[in-house]
Structures are given as structure tokens and as C-alpha cells.
Amino acid sequence: METIKSIFAKKLLEVKAVKLQPKEPFTWASGWKSPIYTDNRKTLSYPTLRSFVKIELCHLIQEHFPEADAVAGVATGAIAQGALVADELGLPFAYVRPKPKDHGMGNQIEGELPAGATVVVVEDLISTGGSSLKAVDALRQAGIEVVGMVASFTYGFPVAEEAFREADVQLLTLSDYDHIVAEAARTGYIKPEDQPVLAEWRKNPSEWGKQ
């Protein structure tokens, strides 16, 4: 029986929200060379898939964080998905900017989340976890309790797993790097000789591909 992680991995590959190019790596904004590129925002363009993501994120929240009384999305990638999830659950919604605005009210949290609210954070993509956990810090500094985070996808970097442990944030995702690679191998998207390359990248992504 297929798991949600396998099903979602298949869907991401079908709409090209995830691309694997071990022989022609991408360059991330950080400068890292990478055999994978992920753009989960593409899922918003497909109504059936958009609904799938919304419902499955809601299922994670209902099962693991039933005490949540509000939803916060991480800007910008998770604003739309977070709003859809909050609407489905009938909960208040706000989103968190990377840093406070430099004009107007200077808000970092946009929306109305009263101090003492119990919030689940919705994220799009987890790489190192840095930007996601900055949003958690901003919420906590505002007196808001963060009970956990749900996200569409994670690369599963050890540095991210450690960061979430240190921040005491439980992270649950709809799919991950291992399931993407497994699905890509199953369908012939990648060749058998590509799998060791993909595994090696995940071990030390910041140094991979350097001459």
C-alpha cells in the first residue's frame, strides 16, 4: 500500500514541481550546487493537487496538533497554502515575514494572533530550517505558543533535523527527499547510477560539486 509520502512524491514529479538533474546540477540562491530543484508553489496551479495538499496538511494537524487554535504561514511560499489550511479548519490565520517591515507599522507578523494563541506553523519547503525557525522565534517572542510545524516537503538535511530538535519544534511533512528519489528510480526518471550521487549530495550539500 502506497503511503502519502510516496503518493505526493509521485504527484510532485508529475507536475515538475521537483526536478532531478544529477548530471546538470542547479545552483541555489545560497550558491550551493544541487541535483534537485523544488518549487512546491506549482501545486497551487492544479486545483486537484492544490486540494490534495490542503486536505493532507489538515489531516496532519488534526492528528498531531489538535490543540492548535490558529494557523501561521511562513512568507512567502506558505502564505497561500497556510490560508487554505486555516480556511478548511475554520481557524484564524496570519503569516510571518522574514523580518519586520521597514515602514508602516513595522509588522513581522501580519494578521491578528493574540498573545497566548496556540499555533501550528505551515511551511512550504524545509532546507536548512533557518528561515522556518526564524518564523517560530518571531511568534514565540510575540507570546504565541507554537505547537509544531507542517510542511509540504523536506530535504531531510541533518543540519535541519538538529535545528528543529534544538528549537523543540516537531516537524511533519507530506513528503521528503528519500521518497522523491525512490519514486524517481521506480519510474525510470533517474538511472540506477544516479542514486549514489543523489545520496552523496544529501550528506554534505554545501560542499557537493565543488572542484
Layout of helices and strands:
Elements: H1 4-14, E1 18-20, E2 26-27, E3 33-34, E4 36-38, H2 47-64, E5 70-74, H3 79-89, E6 93-96, E7 109-111, E8 118-126, H4 130-141, E9 145-154, H5 158-166, E10 171-176, H6 177-187, H7 194-203
Parallel strand pairs: 5-6, 5-8, 8-9, 9-10
Antiparallel strand pairs: 1-4, 2-3, 6-7
Q: Explain this structure to me?
A:
It is built from seven helices and ten strands. The chain is globular, with a radius of gyration of 17 Å. It is α/β, with parallel strands linked by helices and about 210 residues long. The strands form three sheets. The protein has a six-stranded mixed β-sheet with strand order 7-6-5-8-9-10, sandwiched between helices. The chain has a two-stranded antiparallel ribbon with strand order 1-4. Helix 1 (about 5-15) crosses helix 6 (about 175-185). The model has no long low-confidence stretch (mean pLDDT about 95). The protein has helices at about 5-15, 45-65, 80-90, 130-140, 160-165, 175-185, 195-205; strands spanning about 20, 25, 35, 35-40, 70-75, 95, 110, 120-125, 145-155, 170-175.
Report the span from N to C terminus. 43 Å
**Adjacency order of strands in the biggest sheet:** 7-6-5-8-9-10
Q: Which class of secondary structure composition applies to the elements?
A: alpha/beta
- According to DSSP, the number of beta strands is 10
Low-confidence stretches: none
Tally of helical runs: 7
Shape: globular
Main sheet makeup: 6 strands, mixed
Average pLDDT confidence is: 93
- What is the helical fraction, as a range of percent? 25-40%
Radius of gyration: 17 Å
Strand proportion: 15-25%
SSE run: HEEEEHEHEEEHEHEHH
